[in-house]
Specification:
Distance between the termini of chain A: 64 Å
Distance between the termini of chain B: 59 Å
CATH class of the largest domain in chain B: Alpha Beta
CATH architecture of the largest domain in chain B: 3-Layer(aba) Sandwich
Number of domains of chain A: 3
Strand order of the largest sheet of chain A: 8-7-6-9-10-11
Strand order of the largest sheet of chain B: 2-5-8-1-9
Number of strands of chain A: 11
CATH architecture of the largest domain in chain A: 3-Layer(aba) Sandwich
Strand content of chain B: 5-15%
CATH topology of the largest domain in chain B: Rossmann fold
Structural class of chain A: alpha/beta
CATH topology of the largest domain in chain A: Rossmann fold
Radius of gyration of chain B: 25 Å
CATH superfamily of the largest domain in chain B: P-loop containing nucleotide triphosphate hydrolases
Shape of chain A: globular
Oligomer: heterodimer
Order of helices and strands of chain B: HHHEHEHEHHEHEHEEEHEHHHHHH
Largest sheet of chain A: 6 strands, mixed
CATH class of the largest domain in chain A: Alpha Beta
Helix content of chain A: 40-55%
Number of helices of chain A: 17
Number of strands of chain B: 9
Strand content of chain A: 5-15%
Radius of gyration of chain A: 26 Å
Chain lengths: 393, 304
């Protein structure tokens, strides 16, 4: 029996099938545009499309864009074209499913690929659901704290104002001196030949005025991940105020909360009314003060958001005590993965200020080799004091 | 008429299998996936992005392809801070200055001088510009694109989509021919989606046993069959160990050359000598400390 999918008799033809395949890939999280269907057809004309292996190779070269996609491609290809001889009734998906992309909530519109973690033919593993940050999934977990907690009780407006100043100073301290490009400047370290020559034409070829260029400072992007699990509740007040202040001062900063799941809170914290922002945030973080899964949360961050928001100019700031209920090795792996994106990783641990503190918690110990800085912070004053130390990073 | 048919046939006849065998003639053993992707890049005229660990032969493929196509290889090595002046074009400032001075003595007017010093004669072509102004399409290798910063990616996108360069003083320079573009990346940072979308993509992995053996035989034809198999077995097993820097194909070839130079015919025979040649494979201190003589002997024993 042929393994190849059969198509219904009223099927509109190969180009529609290809469009269907591209849609199939897109639904599974591959980033493909309209033009790819056309390229794929043109590419198939280059080989004997009747040969499954050749077609597979051709479509893989056209449709994939990174290693992870290459690994998933075979399954996706099989589930569409090699459906054990089953008849595919409709190659063009219904309108309703296509609309899904446009009616996501603001959080999903930021590009979270819905259900992209499973392979094409197998359902998602249970673990993916627990770690994912969609609010629509009703899956029981043993560790989630279902008590709603109003964070407005925790954070006072004057603290946010105070932390804005701290956040501004820390942001300035982290500015990056690494830019290798040069721009025109009054006091530069190199001659700006192009401008000098241009100007010298006015003085008969005599370069009277030497124009210069220098490397400009670049600001660093701060990405803050705050642990709000049970053990961190006491410190949450300071850190949440700090995050709120940071978001209001620094337009390029990015913030996340995690406990047993990871939630991006950048958008809600940008609310003009600081206290309303905190209120909106507390609606998003049910599970506040529950268990902590640092490793899985960081891994999820490294796999999803980090790919878009973290680059060589980012400073990832993790605010956590390092007490993890999951395997500590995962924390190390996640940080290693994160570091490969070229960012700096700073871990601020509220416990480090204690006199006899040693990073013996397994999660913390696993993280240490991958950190650029490991500092203590449990009050706003401590955070302010960090300014000098961070400037040397 | 007959000649036209012949050329046409030749174009059709160039399938990925013939491309693969032509690459093999030049000493490059390509996997089927890579050969198909290369063939597509040639026939569709799209850039090909090759990603993979260091030392799997990404750069080498461009060099071999230029030999197969009998055309120039233009290479742009990327690094952080790479900008238009080094990648696309730069004015020849010294020459411009001299010309202005000479013109001033001859009493030429400013307008004429300006026209002259901002002409093609005073333009220094850098790789990207050189690639689009060749008479025969060259192979343009943009090596380690992940090292350049994102601003440069934007530059590159513009050139890869329009194949033209705008110079404010001179106007737009359009491509004479479309170069065959190959980009390589070691994956130290993620490339933008826009760039990935514009390219065909192939992930180049470490070769399997048979492919690597074929590579070794192509590069060192006079190696003994038994030693060759032992070397490949050893290197493949070594890659399974948790190393900081996994040995690539170039390292494997160095290793083979070292063994042949020392006249070793069997890996398991002289563990001490064999261990001293491991410097060709292990390039960090911790890796060398991890693979002790005993470990190396054990791996060699399993591989044999």
């Amino acid at each position: 029996m042929s393994r190849v999918t059969k198509f219904a008799a009223r099927d509109p033809g190969p180009s529609a099938r290809m469009a269907g395949f591209i849609t199939h890939l897109r639904e599974n999280g591959l980033r493909l545009g309209v033009a790819e269907a056309e390229i794929a057809l043109a590419a198939l004309a280059q080989v004997e499309a009747i040969n499954v292996d050749d077609s597979r190779r051709v479509l893989r070269a056209v449709c994939t864009g990174c290693k992870e996609e290459v690994e998933r491609f075979d399954d996706l290809f099989d589930s569409y074209w090699m459906d054990m001889g089953r008849v595919k009734q409709r190659v063009i998906p219904t309108v309703s499913s296509a609309l899904n992309d446009t009616v996501h909530s603001s959080r999903d519109a930021k590009g979270e690929e819905a259900g992209a973690s499973g392979s094409a033919s197998a359902p998602d593993s249970g673990g993916g659901d627990v770690e994912s940050d969609g609010t629509g999934r009703l899956i029981a977990t043993d560790l989630r704290n279902l008590n709603q907690r109003d964070l407005r009780d925790l954070v006072r407006p004057d603290e946010i104002t105070a932390s804005e100043e701290v956040a501004r100073r820390i942001g300035a301290a982290l500015s990056d001196k690494r830019s290798r490009r040069r721009i025109a400047a009054r006091k530069g370290d190199r001659l700006h030949f192009r401008k000098t020559i241009r100007q010298s034409l006015a003085t008969g070829g005599e370069p009277l005025r030497l124009l210069r260029k220098r490397r400009p400072d670049r600001t660093r992007k701060i990405v803050a991940l705050c642990d709000v699990s049970g053990s961190m509740t006491v410190y949450a007040q300071v850190f949440l105020a700090f995050l709120a202040g940071l978001m209001r001062v620094d337009k390029s900063a990015d913030a996340y909360l995690f406990h047993t799941r990871l939630v991006r809170i950048t958008d809600v914290l940008r609310d003009k009314d600081a206290i309303r922002a905190i209120g909106r945030m507390s609606l998003m973080v049910d599970g506040f003060g529950g268990g902590s899964k640092i490793g899985p949360s960081l891994m999820r961050f490294a796999d999803s958001y980090a790919k878009r928001f973290v680059d060589g100019r980012s400073v990832v700031m993790i605010l956590s005590d390092g007490y993890d209920t999951k395997a500590p090795a995962l924390t190390g792996l996640a940080l290693e993965k994160l570091r490969k994106r070229g960012c700096k990783v700073i871990w601020l641990n509220p416990l480090k200020g204690w006199s006899d503190y040693a990073p013996v918690a397994a999660g913390m110990a696993a993280a240490l080799p991958h950190l650029d800085a490991f500092k203590s912070a449990n009050t706003l004053g401590d955070l302010a004091a960090l300014e000098k130390e961070l400037a040397t990073l | 008429m007959a000649r036209w048919v012949l050329i046409h046939l030749a174009a059709i006849d160039m399938t990925w299998i013939t491309l693969k065998s032509r690459l093999a003639e030049k000493g490059y053993v390509a996997s089927d996936d890579l050969a198909v992707a290369l063939q597509l890049a040639l026939s569709l005229g799209r850039p090909l992005l090759l990603e993979g660990a260091a030392g799997v032969g990404k750069t080498e493929i461009a060099r071999t392809l230029s030999e197969v196509e009998d055309t120039r290889l233009i290479r742009l090595q990327c690094y952080e801070g790479l900008d238009a002046a080094q990648a696309i074009y730069e004015w020849n400032y010294q020459r411009q200055l001299l010309t202005i001075r000479a013109a001033a003595e001859d009493g030429e007017t400013g307008k004429e001088v300006e026209q002259r010093i901002f002409s093609r004669d005073f333009l220094l072509e850098r790789p990207l510009m050189a690639a689009i102004t060749q008479d025969t399409p060259p192979v343009l290798l943009i090596d380690e694109i992940d090292r350049a910063d994102e601003e440069f990616e934007a530059f590159l996108l513009e050139i890869l989509s329009d194949f033209q360069v705008s110079i404010p003083e001179l106007g737009t320079i359009k491509a004479v021919t479309r170069p065959i573009v190959i980009l390589t990346s070691n994956g130290t940072r993620d490339l933008s989606d826009a760039l990935r979308r514009r390219c065909l993509y192939t992930y180049v992995d470490y070769p399997d046993r048979l492919t690597e053996l074929a590579i070794l035989k192509a590069r060192c034809p006079d190696i003994e069959a038994r030693l060759g198999e032992q070397i490949i077995g050893f290197v493949q097993k070594l890659r399974e160990e948790e190393l900081e820097k996994t040995p690539g194909i170039a390292e494997m070839l160095d290793f083979a050359a070292a063994l042949m130079g020392l006249g070793i015919a069997d890996l398991t025979e002289e563990p001490a000598v064999m261990h001293s040649t491991l410097t060709t494979l292990l390039k960090t201190q911790s890796d060398q400390a991890q693979i002790t003589r005993e470990v190396a002997g054990r791996i060699a024993g399993r591989a044999a």
